Amino acid sequence: MNLIAKPSKDNIKTYVPVGLSLVSLSILDVFVYAFFNFNLMGFLPSQLSYFLPLILGFIGFYLIRIEFSGVRSLDVLNKNINSNNFNALLTLFTIFIIIKSIPPMLDWFILEANFVGNSKDDCTGDGACWVFIKVWFNRFMYGLYPDAEQWRINTAFLILFAVVGVSFFVSEKLKKYFILFLVFVFPFLGIKLISGGSFGLEYVESAAWGGLSLTFIISAFAILFCFPIGVILALGRRSSLPAIKYISIGFIELWRGVPLITVLFMSAVMFPMFLPDGTFIDKLIRVLIAITLFEAAYMAEVVRGGLQALPKGQYEAAKSLGMGYWRMNALIILPQALKLVIPGIANTLLALVKDTPLIFVVGLMELAGMIGLAKTNPKWLGMAMEGYVFAGLVFWVICYAMSRYSQNLEKKLSTER
Amino acid sequence: MSKIIELKNVNKWFDKFQVLKDIDLEVSPQEKIVICGPSGSGKSTLIRCINRLEEHQEGNIIVDGTELSESTKNIEKIRAEVGMVFQQFNLFPHLSILDNCSLAPIWVKKLPKKQAEEIAMENLKRVQIDDQALKFPGQLSGGQQQRAAIARALCMEPKIMLFDEPTSALDPEMIKEVLDVMVDLAKGGMTMIVVTHEMGFAKEVADYMIFMDEGKIVERAKTKEFFENPKSERTKLFLSQIL
C-alpha cells in the first residue's frame, strides 16, 4: 500500500503547489549557497544538507508529474524535463550545475577581473587580467604592421563594409555592379592599399601583417577563390570526359588526404626549393594559394553533393530547351544545387576561417598567432587564458555571424511553399 | 511531301538489353502520331532518341534535315527546334513560371528580355495560366504545372513537339485540362509525337497510331483502322485491356 496517493488529477490542487514549492526550495538552496555562500540547511548534519536539495527536488518533481493534468504549461513541463524519475534527476543536476558554475565564471570574467592599468602588475585580482588584451589590442588587430600606416588597413575595411552595406539598399541592377566590384576590383585594390609600394604609400612587407586583419584578409581571399574552383572541380568530377574527370578526382583526393598544416609547411618551406633561382613568390601568397586549393577540394565535394541531389529531369529539361553544357549548369543546375548545399558551404567556410590560425607554422601570425606571441612575452607570462578566451570570443562572433547569414540566405532563396 | 523526322533501322541497347529493334519511322510536317504500348516497350526511349536525350547505337535519325550522331556539332540547335514535354513536368523550381518560359528564348535564341517575356505571356495565355505567371512551380497544381511545361516548350517556337506520357503523373481530374491544351495545339497544325495511353485523345487527333512491344514497332496504321481493325494479335490484346 502506498503511503501517499499517486499524483493524479484528483489531488492536483494539493500536489502541484507542494511539489512546485519543494522544487523551488531545492533550487533556492543551491542558488543561495552558490551566490552568497550561505547554507540554508546548515542546521542539518552535513551529509544530509548536502544532498537535501536533490532529495527535495526529486520529491517535488514526483508530485507534479501528473499525466494529462489539463493544465497546458504543466503538461509541457512534464513532457520535456520531467517525464520519469531519471529525467527528473537529470533536470535537477543540469539546473544545479548551471547555478553552481555561474558565480565562479562571473568572478573570473568580471567581478574579480582587472580592467585598468598598463602592465601585468596592475592585475591584482584573482580573475582575468583584461589589461593584457587592452595593452596588446592594437597588435592583436594589426600584427606588426607599423602604427603610422594602420589607417590603410582601416580604410580598406571601411570601404569594404561601406560597399557591402550600401549594396543592401540599392536596386537589383546596381547591385550587380556592386558585386562585380567586390569580387573583381576590391580585393586587388585593398591588397595594394595595404601592401603599398606605389602611389606614395610606404611598402609594408607581408611578414609584418598580422592579427585579426590578417585573419580577415586570408579568409576573404580563400573564400573568394576556393568557391569557384570548388564548383569547377565538382563539375569536373562529374564530367563525361575521362581526362577531366580523373584529373578532378585526383586533385580532390590529393588535397583532402593531406593535413592542412603539412600543406602550409610545404608551401612555405619546400615549394621555394623547386623554383628556379631568383624567382620569388611572397610567402603570404603561397600560403593563400595553399589554403585556397585545400578548401576548394572540400568545397568541390560539398557542391557535388548538391549536383547529385538534383533529379535527372532538370538536366533533361534544360537540354531539351537547347541549352549547352555551360548554360545548363549556370542557369539551371548550379542555382539549385548551390541552394541545396548552403549549410554544407557555410560549414566549409566556417572551417576555413577557423583553420587560419594554422598559418603560425610558417611564421605568419593572425589573431591567435599574435596572442601566442604576446603570451610568451616575459612581461606578460601567464596570460594564455585571457588571450585564448578573447580569441575564442572573436572567432565565435565572426563564425556566428556567417552562420546567421547563411541561414538567412537559405530562407530568402527558398521557393518551395 | 518531305519528311521532318526520319528514323532508319534504329537499334539501341542499354548494356546488353536491346531497347529498340530496327525502328523505321517517318513523320511529315504537321502530322500527329500517337505511340502506345505496354510499359518497357521502348516508346519513351524512342522519342527521347529524336532529340538525342538518349543516343542510338545503330541506324540513322534525321531531324529536319540534320542527322543525329556523335559528330553532330549543333545538337543544341536541333533540340531548340524540338520541344519536349515530360511525364514529371520538370519545371525549374527555382524560377517563376514566367522565367521558366522566357529563360531559354533569352539565353539560347538570344531574344531581348522584353520580347521573350511577351512570347512567354502569349503562350501562357494559350494554355490559360497567364494569371499564374509570377508564381513558382511549387505553388501550382499538377495540371497547371504540365500546362506551364507545354508553354515553356512552345516559347522556343519548335517545329516538332514530343510528349512523353504527359498525363501519367496527373490526378484524373487534371488530365482533361492538359489534353485540351494538346488538342488545341494539334488543331493549330503542330507536328506532334505523343506517347500516351489516353486513347480518347488519340482517336481525336492522331493521324497515325503506332503500337510498340519489346522494342519493336508491331503495328502502324491510320487511327481509324488501328482501333477498328487491328491486324496483329498483340495489338488486339493490348487494346482489349486498355479500352
- With strands numbered from the N-terminus, the spatial order across the biggest sheet of chain B is 6-7-8-3-9-10
Number of helices of chain A: 16
For the terminal residues of chain B, how far apart are their CA atoms?
A: 34 Å
Biggest interface and which pair forms it?
A: A-B, 22 and 29 residues
Quaternary state reads heterodimer
What report would you give on this structure?
- The complex is a heterodimer of chains A (417) and B (243).
- Chain A is mainly alpha-helical and 417 residues long.
- Chain A has helices at 12-36, 46-64, 72-81, 85-111, 130-142, 150-167, 172-195, 211-237, 242-256, 260-274, 283-309, 312-320, 325-340, 342-355, 367-375, 384-413, and one strand at residues 365-366.
- In chain A, helix 14 (342-355) packs antiparallel against helix 16 (384-413).
- The two termini of chain A are 57 Å apart.
- The longest helix of chain A is centred in the last third of the chain and has 30 residues, at 384-413.
- Chain A has 2 domains: 12-103; 130-145 and 204-413, MetI-like fold (Orthogonal Bundle).
- Helix content of chain A is 71%, strand content 0%.
- Chain B has 243 residues and is α/β, with parallel strands linked by helices.
- Helix content of chain B is 38%, strand content 25%.
- Chain B is built from 9 helices and 10 strands.
- In chain B, helix 3 (97-107) packs parallel to helix 5, helix 4 (113-126) packs across helix 5 and helix 5 runs parallel beside helix 6.
- The longest helix of chain B is centred in the C-terminal third of the chain and has 16 residues, at 172-187.
- Chain B is globular, with a radius of gyration of 18 Å.
- The interface between A and B is medium-sized, with 22 and 29 residues.
